[in-house]
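ESCALATION

Customer reports they have been waiting on this structure for their group meeting. Please prioritize. Original submission:
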Amino acid sequence: MEELEEVQPKQRGIWPALGLLFLAPLVAEFLLGNLPLRLLPALIVLAPLYGGGALLIRELVRRTGRGWPSIVLLGMAYAIFEEAFTTQSLFNPNYLKMNLGLLTPAFIPWLGIGAWWTLWMFMVHSLWSISTPIALVEACVPDRARTPWLGRRGLEVVALLFLLGAIASTAIGYKQDHYMASIKQFVGAGLVIVALATLAFVIAPRRGYAAHGTAPSPWLVGSVALLFGSGALFVPMGWGWGAVAALLGLDALMLLMVTVWSRKDAWGLKHQLALGAGAAFAYGWHAFLQHPAVGNVDPAVRVGNAIFLTGAFVLVWFAARRNASKPGSAL
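Update from on-call: job pushed to the front of the queue and completed.
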């Protein structure tokens, strides 16, 4: 990894950093519809974990001049960290004793994991929990979208918060479940994290590509992101290996489209905002069809879904206004 340089005071941005700290868990759990509005105080634990992870990933990537491939790879490493070590849902056949059968579809006995659930966690965390909040908050501060927001002391504080959040989340989960994965599973998960993190920093910083045509409208990009995100949310886990194939197909096609589009002239922050908006809105509207992980569905739950979706619209509108007069720039 390249040596991290101290950030000059004029480059720092405590407000964007705080925004990302809280937006990440709001997207990951509340906009998704996994947690209802009444559990908003859970941000005390969720913000250090989700927000701390997203902020650390964003700062490390921007400080070393890397881009979105590194963010996505580190988001995948985060997914393994949370789901293998903090919640242990990748290995627990009856996570939190909820009888959800998460590991049953496409179960791999010699690894003790479900291929569908593992792939789904890769997608949920790398694309929604990490990448989407980063994309939205950066679009809100276009003049500082590619510069670090924290100095060394700030990074140290966020790292400590992340560690405390992980410990608290692990303790709460273990108290409810008393499940412990095997040493081999922990070691294997740790090796995958190291491999993903190493690859994220082996990738050379993007220096720009020759433009071949003009990038499509941000409206089109956002619509495609909404379509693909919604499609992924509707792939039934009961398909087993068919669900794995469907998700991989959606991932591959979306990745190909974004790769081609991002190499075209005038691709910039507006398109990043469009991708983040499409992903966020997919979560937001699908929440109305989802049963929360805690409690029953009642009018208060749906009111909460409406509040979080409205908040997402307001945030995207604000970011769009901030970028209205900005030209395209390479990502």
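Sent to customer with the following note: Confidence is low (pLDDT under 50) at residues 1-10.
Escalation resolved.
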